[in-house]
Amino acid sequence: MPRHQTFLKNMLESRIEIEYRVHQIICGDDNIVDLASEIMATAARRSTYAERAVPVVEMLAADLREWDPELAKDFRHLISERSLSVFFDFWQGTFDDRPPLKRVHAKAVTTLVGGLISVKIIAYDRFKICALLLIENFQSLAHLSYVLLLFETATASDSFIKEPAFLLKCLAILQGRCRQVFRSSSVSQEETKLTQLIYNVLFGKQTALA
Questions:
Q1: DSSP, res 152
Q2: Is the Cβ–Cβ distance between 170 and 135 less than 8 Å?
Q3: What are the DSSP E strand ranges found in 105-198?
Q4: In 152-185, which positions are buried (b, 16+ CB within 10 angstroms) versus exposed (e)?
Q5: What pLDDT score does 1 carry?
Q6: Short-list 60, 106, 112, CA closest to 83
Q7: How does pLDDT run across 114-159, given as a tens digit for each residue?
Q8: Is the pLDDT of residue 83 over 90?
Q9: Residues of the chain above pLDDT 90, percent
Q10: The whole model's pTM is what?
């Protein structure tokens, strides 16, 4: 098994591994900067790594909080800022047709950021910025599938903030952008799924599109 996969797998499956890393940090033999770097280097590679990273970050932050609440807060902030930095660099570079970031995958970084939003490590206001970046700039069906992925992962928690004005704004931008990019009166499967998802968030999962 690759080292990166082993790192997250071990931490997810073993409380001892997490407790050991926290103990090393508290004793001064490790630090949150290196730990955050290791998590980011792993999580940005593959979506399976990104999915594993979110509960690992939650457990690390919870254990750190028992020893030092301020250190736990700093760790959460560090993870938030680093994941957002990679997200913005990757997607802005993609839309600007710049060379892609090495060892960063679109599905992985989008899954990671969406998951961190869901558990409130990334704040809702930052979700709005991420969502608008993708929804205002997507250029293909593949890009649109990542807009859907961001919304799916970010809204997975029942505690997701339902802000009607913003979500309705997203729907309006989505419809206009789809007509602009695809120049067709037909509606793609991705657009239908995203529209339905936003309606579900706003009005409940039993809501069906007319």
A1: H
A2: yes
A3: none
A4: bbbbeeeebbeeeeebeebbeebeebbeebeeee
A5: 45
A6: 112
A7: 999 999 999 999 999 999 999 999 999 999 999 999 999 999 988 8
A8: yes
A9: 62
A10: 0.89
pLDDT at 22: 92
- Tokens 């679109």, located at residue: 106
59 Cβ contact partners less than 8 Å away, ≥ 6 residues apart: 11, 15, 18
List the one residue out of 204, 120, 206, 135 whose CA is nearest residue 166. Answer: 135
Class of residue 30 by CB neighbours under 10 A (exposed 0-12, middle 13-18, buried 19+) = middle
- Short-list 174, 150, 161, 148, CA closest to 201: 161
Q: Which residue has the tokens 């009607």?
A: 164
DSSP state letters, 47-65: HHHHHHHHHHHHHHHHHHH
Distance CA 121, CA 115 (A): 9
Contacts of 177 (CB under 8 A, 6+ apart): 135, 136, 138
Report the amino acid identity of residue 74. D
Q: Is the pLDDT of residue 4 over 70?
A: no
Tokens of 20: 């050991």
H/E segment holding residue 2: none
pLDDT of residue 67 exceeding 80:
yes
CA nearest to 153, candidates 111, 190, 181: 111
Contact assessment for residue 32 and residue 22, using Cβ atoms and an 8 Å cutoff: no
- The answer to whether the beta carbons of residues 63 and 19 sit under 8 Å apart is yes
Total residues belonging to the chain: 210
